[in-house]
Amino acid sequence: MMKEGFDNRIVEYEYIHSIDPKDTAALVNAIDPKDGQIILDGMCGYGSVAKSILEKNKSVAIYLLDESSVQIKRARKNLPLLTSGRFITRKFTYSKLKLEYFDTVVIKMGLHEVSKKDQIAVLKESFRILKPTGKLVIWDIMLDDMTQKLFQKIIKKKDKLAGYNMLVKERYFFREEEFIKNVKRAGFRKINDFHSINYRFSSLKRLESELHNNFIKLNKFNEYIRDIFPKKLRDKMEYKDINPDIQFNIKKKIFKIEK
Questions:
Q1: Is the CB of residue 203 less than 8 Å from the CB of residue 210?
Q2: How many CB atoms lie within 10 A of CB 134?
Q3: DSSP code for 74
Q4: Distances 44 to 78, 121, 143 between C-alpha atoms, Å
Q5: Residue 178 is part of which domain span?
Q6: How many other CB atoms are there within 10 angstroms of residue 70's CB atom?
Q7: How confident is the model over 130-172, as pLDDT tens digits?
Q8: What is the CATH number of the domain that holds 116?
Q9: Which of 28, 54, 239, 256 has the maximum number of C-beta atoms within 10 A of its C-beta?
Q10: Which residues contact 254 (CB under 8 A, 6 or more apart)?
Q11: Is the dihedral of CA 209, 206, 63, 3 positive or negative?
């Protein structure tokens, strides 16, 4: 089960993904939480999105859903004032949440964590539980024909070295055009490319939390990246090999999507 991967993956995404507070502010602006709205932080992890929403507006009813009980436990610790009924340990594709109940569903860096088949199921479930006037806000990596296979291989190698066997099997990093096609297939009609994020990947930032301070594994990871990284993409992606760190740019976006 996918949850087994996330039961073992205890990371701080703000660090490993070098998240800029300006991008978090853009996410909250896309959500635009209003008094009395009902919001779902889907695939919530440790609840960082819900926390940012509540810092903006404490008068929303926020629910957090994740299939990993370990991540839900982290989220409870991160949001001690929320009642236990607001935390849901369940797979998103079988959420069993009420039809047309939520004003907003937000999924940050979660869609690529499930299989290609389940991604459309997640989008369809989001459509089902959103009110007719509701919106889906997605923050995720948006790849293209040149970067998809490369990035998929790099992350799969890291997951193998980290022992995240379920993530190796299930994760699918989609192309942006695939994502938009699936959003339309799920029933959504209004797709707003809301905010672009330049993410600077760093192999060294995976050392402590994911490779458990094992420099042998980090060296293997770096050697793998060096071997497969195409020369024609190195300038485009601002590739830098500053041993023991390899860095390059990859694109993320925030989309605001309505029925």
A1: no
A2: 22
A3: H
A4: 11, 17, 22
A5: 2-145+170-199+251-258
A6: 17
A7: 999 999 999 999 999 999 999 999 999 999 999 888 888 889 9
A8: 3.40.50.150
A9: 256
A10: 23, 26, 27, 30, 137, 138, 139, 194, 195, 196, 197
A11: negative
